[in-house]
Specification:
With about 140 residues, this protein is of the alpha+beta class. About 25% of the residues lie in helices and about 40% in strands. It has one domain: Nuclear Transport Factor 2, Chain: A. The protein is built from 4 helices and 7 strands.
């Protein structure tokens, strides 16, 4: 059993380890039952059981070496904290070759009963700069 996290930074390290180990039980212990999540797989999910089923079970088995980058920002104010940063993970592409997939994530934590718990998480892949993702500029679009 994991030891309780005493800082948001320790919380993040514990979460990273849970994802890398595909340890859903350890991940569950880090989130509030009433958490809300936006993810790379699930659009918006309310409730921890739903987050695990609709997001984690669809993502964690597909990835390897999940980690937040060293420059992740962590801020604490009383019994609330937030974490924001870029993450990296290895995945297998359609051609069967591994590649590193970057993204970004945020967490909102609350200290409940002396324990830091995530009440919100948001994971997304890095935005694409393509016209496919954003649409084409119209010919009369204002240019700076």
């Amino acid at each position: 059993m994991a030891t309780p996290t005493t800082t948001p930074e320790q919380w993040l390290q514990t979460f990273e380890a849970a994802v890398r180990a595909r340890d859903f039980t350890a991940g569950r212990a880090l989130f509030a039952d009433d958490a809300v999540a936006f993810g790379t797989w699930a659009r918006a999910v309310a409730g921890l059981d739903n987050i695990i089923r609709e997001q984690w079970h669809n993502v964690w088995p597909r990835i390897r070496d999940f980690r937040f980058e060293a420059d992740a920002r962590v801020r604490t104010s009383g019994d609330s904290a937030w974490i924001a940063g870029g993450w990296l993970t290895e995945v297998t592409g359609p051609d069967g070759r591994p590649f590193t997939r970057p993204g970004r994530g945020t967490f909102v934590l609350e200290r409940r009963g002396g324990k830091w718990l995530a009440v919100h998480s948001h994971f997304s892949l890095l935005p694409s700069q393509s016209e496919t993702a954003h649409g084409r500029l119209s010919s009369d679009a204002a240019r700076p």
